[in-house]
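Section handout 9: paired folding examples.
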Amino acid sequence: MYGLLGLAPMAHGQQETAQDSIKKLLIQDGASYRLGNQAGQASLWLKRPYNTLLIATADGRTLDVNPLNMFNSTAKTEPMGGFSEHTNHVFNLHGNSGWVKHDEISISKTGIRNYSKQIRFLEKENEAWKLVGQTVLSDKAPTLKKDTVSYIHTVDILTGEIAILASINDHFEAPNWHPDNYLILNSRGKIHTFDLTTKAMNLLPTGMAAHNNNDHGISPDKNWLVVSNHDPNFESTKKYKSHIYLVPIKGGEAKRITREVPSFWHGWSPDGKLLAYCAERNGNFDIYSIPVTGGKEKRLTTTEGLDDGPDYSPDGKYIYFNSYRTGHMQIWRMLADGTKPEQMTFDENSNWFAHPSPDNKWIVYIAYLSDEKQAHLFGKQVKLRLMDVATKEIKDITPVFFGGQGTINVPSWSPDSKKIAFVSYSIK
């Protein structure tokens, strides 16, 4: 059970409207369908003699699906994966029955977008709205300026609720979560802020650091931003010329910290004194640390194969990272000085970018369903997984979706350790 059917209670003094309840019902219905959780989906419907599921496909076919199939909890349903976005709701509610019309964008786990117009028929029983019927009419895809759409999400690790905060017809990556209620993301070399209340996206000035990738983060005192910026004018024969820079959190001139390239930031020690990063030196990518004031870097890993994604635990004891040292990418941790490495995951997925929660109880990471060797490419089937630090138990917290590079490269926990921000994508 994925837990995506629970929803957090309304805040004290806040009354949930019928329309809010129905919108949540539709989200729950879509989530259970995408997870293959037939029993969960059936719990959202009422069995009636007039149940109906009527689908008009894009090629002109009409499918009159037997709705009683969904009440057969023993039937096996393949998880569909992906996400759906509902907009333009129109409600017609009278007493304990009614309907809602809405538009839906369905994003498959392979990144394909499908558009439809739907009507959901509803009844209220025991003070809870349930579904009794549904019609689906395939719709024409709109013309977009760019092929890629980025979906900014949050997932609640307790209730499983996944929200789409924004869908943007451009490529955005790697959200950090600032306590002042905004996210920091990168897009096409620039750094942006995304206000969680107004949903406004604004450019954050970073001075001469104008070619930033998706390895950026917030200082423990929340006053500084670290970025990984490609410097095309730096004298080096290496393909990647990424240095680590510091920028004031509200924007300003960038100060370079590292001397050698490439250097890709991933972690900040909780005392604010050290930066941890992945760097290639002498042909091998390893994990290094450096004082936040600059100076001499310290090599923390020495094994063959890629070591990447270092992130400090909140108590400063460990650095979590992903490593290819066994011939398969898995999550590891080591003491902050680089000693006593310990493997944390042992499965068929390619596991990347482990981020401890601020309360030090959880680790979130991204799992590629395919063996990507030492690559973490964009446009793959992935899911987010959650590890209990105390018990080492692991569970999925999202369906399989289209993502990868840019989804959670950097720490993206909410300050209260209850939610994680991430990005999924579609391409057609």
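Moving on to protein 2 of 2.
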Amino acid sequence: MEADRALNRFIINPSFRLQSTYLSVDWYVVDPATLQAEGPIARPGQSVLTLRGKVQVIAVNSGARVDIIYHPDTEFDTPTVQKWLRNMMREAITTRACEILPARVRYLENLKGLYGSGVKVRKLPKNILGCCTGRNEIHLPPFLVIFRQDWMDGVILHEMAHYVHKHHRKPFWDFLSQLLGTDARAADAKNDIALSPYFDYYRFLTS
């Protein structure tokens, strides 16, 4: 419950910025008449929020980018608008993650010559960035797709190291250091510090 309250402090509005390697969000403000005219025009990947017969927000998801179009009086702080935007962002991130993350795992497996049994993109418990099953299947949370590239690859390589070592003792960290090409323990601590300001917001967008 406390975790849910913490996530509820976030809001999605034109101040929200997302520019990552695989997904970006851009905002466009137009006059109300233009928004009403644009709403009924069907486009691939388009979603429209209408309240009281008036178009409030249009989102166009092209895969790598989400364009959000609104008018100056759109009330972003209302629960209805926030729920719609959050659902839209969750779907956009999850769809992109299911495309990108398995492909990235395959790329790194081929690069390192180290292979598992598959990849699943799914919601994981809080503070878990990935897991590797006893059958060497990697599970990754959708929000990993909006990480910085080096953070994403670090998580994937961490789980790939579990193909060989099913623990976090010294042989695991030594092997992960080989995969990363740098000291794995130091990199892990540095990434934890760098990621911490963003982690809850990433979870908020996909929970």
